[in-house]
Amino acid sequence: MHDIYDFDRVVDRHGTYCTQWDYVADRFGHADLLPFTISDMDFETAPCIRQTLAARLEHGVFGYSRWNHDDFKGAVSNWFASRYGASLEPETLVYGPSVIYVIAQLVSLWSAPGEGVLVHTPAYDAFGNMLVANDRVLLPCPLKKTEGSYQIDWACFEQQAARPDCRILLLCSPHNPTGRVWTRDELGKMAAICQRHGVKVISDDIHMDVSFARYLPWSEVAPDDGWALVSSGSKSFNIPALGGAYAFIANAAARAAYLQRLKAAHGLSSPPILGVLAHISAYRDGAAWLDALKSYLHSSLAHVATRLNAAFPAIDYRVPEGTYLAWIDLRGLGIDTTERMNELQTLLVEKYRVAIMRGDTYGPEGSGYIRLNVGCPRSKVDQGLDALIGALGEVV
Fold it and tell me: Is the keyword Protein biosynthesis in the record (predicted)?
């Protein structure tokens, strides 16, 4: 199907104020590196979105706008119904400028300074940064690697949830960086434990549309209304620069408190109209493009597995259940300390001129891993793999 769309076409993103390409030196010290870093993609967004935005730009007037209407809320809720068979009520949906903004407000509403938030680790680094900035404590539940996959340590999960200071489970679904797509049984068990201990749930589902296993929204297992599902089309349709996210907040009082913060406390009542329109267009007309994208990304991840495992069988890389992020375990090659990872990173940057995220960015449980973003044409993936295989050949 992806033959209809040209995901192999290389688009030069330099000079567009692009974080991944124009600001790679901020993290890696050099501006001329080939980046596989922040999780956006090098692909043009879906044609339907580009056409919608072009028509709106042609109109030429960009006054204050609204999000609280049937077009936006209906497009989002209908997407969940048609793609995932989930019944999420449009009236429970709210807008936010970003997923992390919405999560931060909910964390502030549902916990007090010094209290704990349960997180599966390794974890998206913005979670930890946000919790520290809001004076909350990250309560880690390290995932266990078993036969190439990552499983929940249920004894640890129950122990952390039972802590008197644990107020919230901050779930990443699908999980970044491991690529796990949680099963119904796993979600149901988490839900039962959280209900038993009075722990509210914030589910960050921003990677939901790039799931290769069956993705299930939290709403389908929630035993009560103590939850929120936060997401955006920004990852799946590659539109983070347009702005915009949303959340289904099940509890009416929590929803009202969030909206009071959004509109009154933070003065964010008028959203960027291009982001709103992009979401409406994506969720109404973008399904075929997304299906083609998923097929291409899955093939790219399989390609990573083929090449890496042929060069270094000890890596035993497995295609993830979701996301376009390859979470690669290098510990079998002896890259299992900070010093060894520093050696590899220095070689990748200084000699091979590529930027790949090191795993300990996502917490100590990521030590010995790297995270390779394959949301790009296959030719770029191969350039990254050439560099990685070459560098590994020198250090192991």
Answer: no
